[in-house]
Specification:
Length: about 280
């Protein structure tokens, strides 16, 4: 309890009215150490606030309304004395809000598609043919990274393209006919995905930094062809999973795609052709 003149203090109710924060929230902020009362009556526990606390209370309310949680507010409040640091932290928060907004937009789009499918006549689905084959051994030029999510695979291909365009990069004629991506995580991951993109290599070369030469042995795989956008990938993987189980096989390596017609070749998703492969034993 400090020695501020109690006649210049406000009850928690009056402070709440002036600052437009509920008494419940003021008590919560006190408990979390964000906004402690100027005085607390030692006998009845009543909280009293000073008008000089309006500024910090207003900052807390603004940050809360901007989508910041308690822990984040606690980190941001001291930065109001460091404009550059505060701007950098708020910019980072703005980026996270944009990502969250995009996720919500994607979810809304998916819900709209589900609703439209309920309203439209049921269309026959194209059967998915799962087969077994043995792919010969191949040598590839590869670029492996942990990327934020599957959509970020396109950024890897952009980096791969810059490698091909570099003065000391491999001649494009030495690459092909197989181009693909391998997914190394032992389980499905929505984020921090371990991906290697690659192109079959004819001959030898010294790759630029970050790229590697890989030798993949002969592989026995269960596979199916995905025609169209990658939104159908779930159905393809489930069909292959059902085939692998019913035929008594087990998985023997990471899943990989072979891009027969990719977004780099044709921007129209309806024309994409992807061979989805699961190594089996």
């Amino acid at each position: 309890m400090n020695d501020t003149d109690p006649t210049h203090l406000l009850t928690i109710g009056d402070f709440s009215r002036f600052i437009r924060l509920s008494v419940r929230m003021l008590r919560h902020y006190d408990e979390r150490g964000l906004l402690e009362p100027e005085q607390v009556d030692p006998f009845n526990g009543h909280r009293f606030y000073s008008p000089r606390q309006f500024k910090i209370a207003a900052r807390i309310r603004t940050l809360r309304d901007a989508g910041c949680g308690i822990d984040q507010i606690a980190r941001l409040l001291p930065l109001f004395d460091d404009t550059e640091a505060l701007r950098a932290a708020l910019d980072a928060h703005a980026r996270s809000l944009a990502a969250a907004a995009q996720q919500i937009a994607d979810q809304q789009s998916l819900l709209a598609n589900i609703i439209n499918q309920l309203q439209e006549p049921t269309m026959p689905t194209m059967p998915i043919t799962v087969e077994e084959r043995t792919l010969p051994a191949r040598r590839t030029l590869a670029l492996r990274r942990v990327i934020p999510d599957f959509a970020a695979e396109s950024e890897l291909w952009q980096e791969f393209g810059r490698h091909l365009g570099a003065p000391d990069g491999p001649p494009p004629s030495r690459l092909g006919p197989l181009w693909g991506a391998t997914y190394f995580d032992g389980e499905y991951r929505d984020s921090d995905v371990d991906v290697s993109i690659w192109a079959q290599l004819q001959g030898d070369l010294t790759p630029l930094a970050g790229f590697t030469l890989e030798q993949t042995p002969e592989q026995r795989v269960a596979w199916a062809t995905l025609y169209g956008s990658y939104e159908q990938m779930d159905s393809i993987c489930q069909a292959i999973g059902g085939w692998v189980t019913s035929h008594g096989h087990s998985l023997a390596g990471p899943m990989f795609n072979i891009y027969v017609v990719s977004p780099a070749q044709d921007p129209d998703p309806d024309n994409w052709v992807t061979e989805v492969n699961f190594p089996i034993a």
